[in-house]
Amino acid sequence: MKKAGRIVLSLIIVISFCDLLEAQKIKTIDGVKTIINGKKPKSPKATLSKFRIKEELIIGEGDDPEKSFSEVAAFSVNDNGYIYSLDSKDRKVKIFDDSGAYVRSIGKKGQGPGEINMPSGILISKENELIIEDTLNRRLAVFTLEGEFIKNISLADRLGLVNLMQDSQGYFLGREIGLDGDKMYFEIKKYDAELKPLFILDKIEFAVPIPGTKINIMDLMSLYQFDEEGNIFYGRNKEYELKVFDAQGNHILSIRKDYNPVKITQEDKDEMLDRIPNVTPGVNIKEMFEFPKQYPPYQFFSLDEQGRIFVRTWEKGEIKGEYVFDIFNPEGIFISQYITKADVRLWKDNKMYSIEETDDGFKVIKRYGVYWE
Question: What is the pTM of this model?
Fold first, then answer.
């Protein structure tokens, strides 16, 4: 009997050890604390790990051009739940209240005060001002949330500055475009409240995109986000790794996960090329792109208000358009997976906001209630 008990105890120890092989390992690599999650790690005990969402609102359906989108490129949400959605083709920001009712539009095509030419992004600033990235006019257009034009901020001294976001202290993160001989580059920078550079987080070089050049666009992808404390989460997505930097740019944490690479099929390539617009007359932009054999480890990530990290992978669900999200706690420990079509862009007041495509191919904004168990 004692022998049987020892065998059972040995089996428990072996099983526990096998579980640990798929769990998390904590190492110090080059002086940085690094969390390494296995391919299918188990959630830590006493953790809210069952995640679900419930659709509450859809914006952009219907045929009314004011209430629908030609091409919704970005959006932001104010403290009252109003949704400010950038329609890049209409050159307008369309505003909807928290019930989804259309309120008004801001902006029109042009180069004069209060006009925009090629908008690429928007954000609601710490001062509750609406900032629109006007790429072609090389400036930022600033409005009140009610739509009154305030000023333009010139970016004429830079080749381009896009994908801006701001933390609670007023600091900015952005992607600045530069040119050096036959090379172009993106520099991921932190800026002060006046958009003066503080430090460079990363520099990504690539060949000048001219006819005959081949570009692997997935090599150029990088993502970044502030957390509530002003730390910067950054991912290059060549590896399944998120790097965390403090407000001064010091690398303080790395979060990694083992994964199974997903092959890029010809159908996938054709679908991605179909979505690329030809914006330069006489140049077939699509001929310039090439694809790797496999997808990068993930598509993008976002942080909810509690600091949990949602990473949208390339692993597909059973329904077309569904993808697997890996969910990590604020310390970088894997806690759950969730499969959804939602293209998560923003979290606010325990709501999740997403850009999604309808069965007819039109993009809409959706809001979901969020529930944890």
Answer: 0.89
Q: State the amino acid at position 323 in one-letter form.
A: Y
CB-based contact 92:107 (threshold 8 Å): yes
How far from the centroid of its chain's Cα atoms is residue 248's Cα? Answer: 22
Cα(241)–Cα(314) distance, rounded to whole angstroms?
Answer: 15
Residue 155 near residue 141 (C-beta atoms within 8 A): no
For the segment 227-283, what is each residue's pLDDT rounded down to a tens digit?
A: 999 999 999 988 999 999 999 999 999 999 999 999 999 999 888 888 776 666 666
Residue 173 is encoded by which pair of tokens? 């993160």
DSSP 99-139: TS-EEEEE--BSSSTT-BSSEEEEEE-TTSEEEEEETTTTE
60 touches 85 (CB < 8 A) = yes
Buried b / exposed e over 186-221, threshold 16 CB at 10 Å, is bbbbbbeeebeeeeebeeeeeeeeeeeeeeeebbeb
